[in-house]
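Margin note from the TA: students keep mixing up input and output lines. Inputs are the sequences; the output is the structure of the whole complex. Example:
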Amino acid sequence: MNPLLRSAMIPMNTLCFQRNFAACSRALVPVQLPSRSETHLWYVVPDEVKSASLLGQYSKILSPCEKEYISCVRGERLKKTALLARVLVRTTIARYQTNGQVDPSSLKFRKNIHGKPEIGIDLEEKDRKIKNNIVSFARRYFTAHEVEMLSSIPDPETQRQHFIKLWTLKEAYVKALGKGFSALPFSTFTIRSRNSSRNCQSRDLSDSSSSDAEIVVESVDGSSSLMNSWQFTLLELAGTHFAAICVESDGSIGGRVFTPRKVTARKTIPFVEDEFHPGTDAVVLGGL
Amino acid sequence: MARNRFPALRTSRFRVSCAAKLETVNKVCEIVRKQLALPPETDLTPESKFSSLGADSLDTVEIVMGLEEEFGISVEEESSQNITTVQEAADLIEKLVQKKEA
């Protein structure tokens, strides 16, 4: 066959393949943007994505830069999670475009050092083991109030889980500020529970089902302006993870009535299926 | 005459003992392997990036805490963003240990 003709056929085959792929699996289901008081949380469970051909298709929607990053990641499991994370970002954003279907591979991301995201999220496995002694770690990196709270928990397992929750909340906060651990040391702010009657005493930690509890942040140097500016949601996700979300609050300072933020979680395997099980996949934890 | 042919030898960096750096690098690798529970066959070099090995921010902080205890130093949180590879950790440790012993 004429080599020129052969090379011209290659793009045609790719296009046909893409059409076949779109025909035999679901297209991305478009979604309405959440309201100001709502947060949508999308997640993928890597162990549920097994098809090598699907993963191959996913690679195709990444940018050259993203593919380059993944090639530097060591190990198949980590490469897979790096791939899925980036595919999740692209496909999720593509769903919310209101002016027609958007091709997720066409999205371009720019890093902006001045921009503040105004929302931060962190996830940790509930069963994650801490190598260092928890109270020693807290003494080194957290605040005195938090050390006191952790030290007061007699059961090591409950203490470990409380530590993980606290870590995810603190991470979510510094991410929402666009800063990160090194720019905003965790010893400069305390995260704790406060119930709606404004009782500032430590809460009974076994009573985490109380929906009156609110998670708040306060500056160690005593400036109280932080507290009403940020809203936290702590969730248990898929029975395996704790997730913390921190959002800039639009409430007024002082005299604010606490209304819990609505968080809806959706599990997805992009282009294959979306699941939405309110109240089971994602359980909002009332307090810390 | 050798010093003229190899100008780099005139700089003070080459006066630092290479053996000490290797020992530090090895200790850092040991702590990283333990924290990240790396399988023995995982290749770990001074250039290895923690993030490429699957370390998240909590892992990195735990590694830094392990290094503080091992070497008797204190790493400011601000410096932790500069510890992204085994070599960077080893370099910072050497710097802090020298400062401590000064």
